[in-house]
Write a structure and sequence with these properties.
Elements: E1 4-16, E2 22-34, E3 38-43, H1 49-56, E4 64-69, E5 72-73, E6 81-84, H2 96-106, H3 111-124, H4 140-152, E7 158-162, H5 170-185, E8 193-197, H6 201-207, E9 210-215, E10 220-226, H7 238-252, E11 260-262, E12 265-267, H8 279-290, E13 297-299, H9 300-307, H10 311-323, E14 327-330, E15 333-336, H11 338-345, H12 348-362, H13 364-375, E16 381-382, H14 383-390, H15 396-412, E17 417-419, E18 424-426
Parallel strand pairs: 3-8, 3-9, 6-7, 7-8
Antiparallel strand pairs: 1-2, 1-4, 4-5, 9-10, 11-12, 13-15, 14-15, 16-18, 17-18
Helix pairs in contact: 2-3, 2-4, 3-4, 6-7, 8-11, 12-13, 14-15
Bound molecules: adenosine-5'-triphosphate and magnesium ion (MG).
Length: about 425
């Protein structure tokens, strides 16, 4: 019954990092995109979602396994597959019309046909009248519409959208999404299948026929959920809320980034990523959790609503709190531990001590930095040292991010100080100025 459009069979991808080491980003990814379906792909930052999309679009090759488009091996960009990027990737010196025409031009289509097709795509996406505008004259939402028109003008059979809405404010993103859904449902575009990478669980459930959850390090499809609800879907309906709940459960199962899950515990290694959670957000969630109406246990979607955190932020905060032993997660619920309660009751000085202790015990990178400083309390350590260390296992961006998180947390736990101007870490100064 299902007609496959694009198939990934046991696809693997390894990137060489700057230090010459190889890092496996995708491993044995199996996935089939069928005719008539919209599939959402959810997963942690860095889990390889964009890499998978770029492989499906033929923009980069897989290292192992095979990619089939309509049953044929895919080599290089395919005519029927278009991709929309998060960063609008428009040429600033070209008008809207010219930006949309680019792909057609590359295919050698005549000027007249190009201009007709581009105009039609521009109209379809609601930008009529702006053909002559330059990207900088447009709002973010309109710029992304140009990005989408540029994909649609190719009349793609497969549309791959990589967080196409996440650079936009919530309302703008929602409106654009609704417009695309309308084009899809009314058959105004020839597109047969859509794959959307998203960080927004609600968006995924509202749009898709299937939701895939990606696991990290290396990336692979960990779970899959069918969404059989009829459209249009009511975001307030029990069925939708229930599915959102389920997806949260899938996303938090064995969570905290690449942490190894042993029973209920998550143990990090020195070279692992850290969830990008701010301490103030972590404390905010703990405080919310102990109070009415949650009284120690909350449904993550409800908590997302209450805090207005994005799913990404909330999942990062939950991962961080889990990692530090303040909460545990159970099927999409977050439940406070005795230590978490103790933390909320504590005053600031006590909180700092608890936080610092949990960091040393649970975050090897922070323990390692602290040890380094203790060995030579007079000296400073430069952050570059630690970046270089992390580069053995992480890409540059991920290494910088992990160290940034470690520094923020470590400073808060009074384990070390950080000199912004010089990029050095040192031991906290003793409270010699205690005149207050
Ligand atoms: N060209 C490249 N060279 C080296 N490493 C790369 C390259 N492209 C991606 N990576 C690394 O591969 C991993 C997966 O990246 P990818 O962009 O696919 O993740 P993602 O799931 O899309 O993340 P995000 O949600 O942040 O967009 C990351 O660690 C990234 O740094
Ligand atoms: Mg990405």
């Amino acid at each position: 019954m299902n007609t496959p459009v694009v198939e990934l069979q046991s696809v693997g991808k390894t990137f060489r990092l700057a230090d010459g080491k190889d890092r496996s980003v995708l491993e044995a990814v199996n996935f089939t995109l069928n005719e008539g379906e919209i599939v959402s792909l959810l997963g942690k930052s860095g889990s390889g979602k964009s890499t998978m999309l770029r492989i499906m679009a033929g923009l980069i090759p897989a290292d192992s396994g095979s990619v089939l488009y309509r049953g044929q091996p895919l080599f290089g960009p395919a005519d029927g597959i278009s991709m929309v990027f998060q960063s609008f990737a428009l040429f600033p010196w070209l008008t809207v019309q010219k930006n949309v025409e680019l792909g057609l031009e590359a295919k050698g289509i005549s000027a007249k046909e190009r201009s007709e097709k581009a105009e039609a795509a521009i109209e379809l996406i609601g930008l009529s009248g702006f053909e002559g505008a330059l990207p900088r004259e447009l709002s973010g939402g309109m710029r992304q519409r140009v990005g989408i028109a540029r994909a649609l003008v190719m009349e793609p059979e497969v549309l791959l959208m990589d967080e196409a809405f996440s650079a936009l404010d919530v309302l703008t993103g929602e409106r654009l999404r609704e417009d695309i859904m309308e084009l899809w449902e009314t058959g105004k575009i020839p597109t047969k299948a859509i794959l959307v990478v998203s960080h927004n669980i609600e968006e995924a459930v509202m749009m898709s026929d299937r939701v895939l959850v990606f696991a990290s390090d290396p990336g692979r499809v960990r779970d899959e959920l069918q969404v059989t609800l009829v459209r249009p879907r009511n975001v307030e309906s029990l069925e939708v809320r229930d599915l959102i709940d389920k997806v949260y459960g899938l996303m938090t199962a064995g969570s905290a980034r690449s942490g190894r899950v042993t029973g209920k515990e998550i143990k990090l290694q020195l070279g692992d990523r850290l969830p990008e959670a701010e301490v103030s957000h972590m404390e905010g969630i703990l405080e919310l959790l102990v109070n009415e109406p949650f009284l120690g246990r909350a449904d993550l979607p409800k908590l997302a609503e209450e805090t207005e955190f994005s799913d990404e932020e909330l999942l990062a905060v939950s991962s961080a709190l889990t990692l530090l032993g303040f909460v545990h997660l159970d099927q999409g619920d977050i439940i406070i531990n005795p230590l978490g309660e103790q933390y909320v009751q504590a005053n600031n000085a006590e909180r700092q001590v608890i936080f610092g202790k949990q960091l040393i015990e649970n975050v090897p990178l922070i323990a390692y930095i602290r040890q380094g400083l203790e060995k030579d309390p007079s000296g400073d350590l430069h952050e570059d040292m630690f970046i270089r260390l992390l580069r053995f296992t992480l890409s540059e961006g991920a290494a910088i991010s992990a160290l940034r998180v470690a520094i923020e947390w470590g400073r808060y736990g009074d384990l070390f100080e950080y000199e912004f101007n010089t990029g050095t870490l040192n031991m906290p100064k003793k409270e010699e100025t205690s005149e207050e």
